[in-house]
Fold this protein.
Amino acid sequence: MKILQSNNFYLNQDINMDIIDPKNKKELTTDQKIRRRTFISFATFFAMSAAAYEGWDWLYHVPSEANGVTARARKPLRAAMNKTELFFRKFFSNNHLVKTYPKSMAAKRVRINSNIGNEDKNFNPENWQLSVVKTNGEVLTVNMEAIKALPKTEIIFDFKCVEGWDQIQHWAGVRFIDFIKHYKLDDLTSMQYVGMETPSGKYQVGLDMESALHPQTILAYEMNDAPLQTAHGAPLRLIIPVKYGIKNLKCIGKITFSDQRPPDYWARRGYDYYSGL
Amino acid sequence: MKVIKEKHSLAMRWTHWVNFPLLTIMIWSGMLIYWANDAYSVTIFGYTFYHFFPDSVFTFFHIPYRLAEGMAFHFLFMWFFTLNGIFYVLYTIFSGEWRNLVPQKKSFKEAWLVLLHDLHIRKTAPPQDKYNAAQRIAYTAIIVMGLGSVLTGLAVYKPVQFYWLCWIFGGYNFARILHFSLTLGYLFFFIVHIVQVIIAGWNNFRSVISGFEVVTEEPAIVAGLADENKKSSGNENLAIE
C-alpha cells in the first residue's frame, strides 16, 4: 500500500513537470504553474464569454426580414423557423390522427379569441359563395347548399391556440379531401400550398398541401350540432386540427392553389409559417 | 506541499458553460411564450398562494406581447440546448466519467448525511469522492430533468405527430405543466448550486474553468498514517486536507 501511494505521488510530480519556462528552461514552481494556468484559462473563459455575448447582441439586434409572405421576424430566426419546419415535416403523416373525444366533453361556450377579417358588419352569409380559383384562372363557385349536400364529417378534438390555451370543441362539415374529390380538383393537389382568405381578404392562411389534405381537415358549417354563428366564422370556416388556431380561418371566401407560399396573416406578424402540431 | 490535481475535463467545462447561457435563453423565451396564457398558480382550496407570474415580474423582464419572438428564439435554441446535452451525456458515457456521477446504492442514504452536514446539524463530513452522494444525485437529476424538458417540450410542440410522447406525459396539458415545473426546478437548482459554489470556495470554482484543483499533499510515507491511508489508496485520490 505504501508503495502504491508513493507511486501515485511521483506520477503526479511527472504530470506537473510539463510546463517549462521557455526562457531559462527552468522548471516552474507549483505556484507559478497555478498562476499561469489560472490566468490562461480565465482569460480564455472571459474571451469566450465576451464572444458569446457579442453573438447574442448581434442576434438580438439583427434587422427583421424584408416584408414578404413572412415578415417581422429577425432574419436568422426566420431562416431557422423554415429549416425547423423542414425537419419536423418529415414526421408528418396522415396516419397521425388528432385525438378525438366524446361529444359530452365538448365545450358549450366555444372560445372566441379574435374576429380579424371577420368584422364586416355588412357581410351577409345568405349571399355568400365559395370561390375556388384553379391554376388555369378558372373559378369554381360553390354555394352552401351544394357543400351541405356533400358527406358530413364530425370532429370533437382539442383545439390548440398558439397562445397556449386549448379547448375541446365539436365541429362538423365536409372534409377538405372529400371536397377536392367531389369537385375533381385532384390535379391541383400536386401543388405545394393551399391558400384561403376571408371574403374581405383581410385574413389569410397558407397551408402546406399535406396538412390541408389531412383526413381531419374540415370545411366546417356546424358547431355543437347547430349552424355556425358569425363570430365563429359563418357560413363556412376552416377546422384544421393539425395546426394551431391561427390557421383555422373563419369565413372562407376564396381558396387558391400555388407552389409558392400564399399570404398568411400571422406569418407576416412574426409567427412561424408552418405552425403545425 | 501544494500539488496541481486535474479535476474537470475540457468537455465537462465546455458543456457546463455553454449550457448556462443556453438554458437562460430557453427560460427567457419560454417566459415570452408562457405570458400569452399565464394559467398557472399555486391554488389550494380556492385560495391562490402564488400566481405565475405577478405582473411586476413580467414587466420587469419585458415579457408582455412578445409571443412570436419567444417562439422564434425558443425553437432555434432548443436545438443547441439538446445537442449540448447529448454531447455531454455521450462524453460521460464514453469517458467513464458516469461512474463518478451516477448515484450508487449508498448514495441516497449518504446524501441525507451530506445535507445534515451542510446544514451544520451533523459534524462529521460524509465520504467525498470526486462528487459526494448529494452531488451525484443532483448532477444526475439535472441531466434527467434536461431530458425531461426536451421530451415534454417535444410533446407540447408536436402533440399530433408525437401523440405517443404526449400520451406518455399524461396528455397535452399535463406535459405543459411538467415542462413548466421543470423550469421551476432549474431555478431551484440554480439557487442551491450558487450557494454551494460560494460556500465551497475559490479552489472549487476555479476548477470548473481551469480544470485543476490545488491540493495540499502530505508526504505519503509516514508510518503512523499508513493504516488510515489504506482505505483511499485503492483509488487515485490523494489525501485531501
Notes: The first strand of chain A starts at residue 130 and ends at 133.
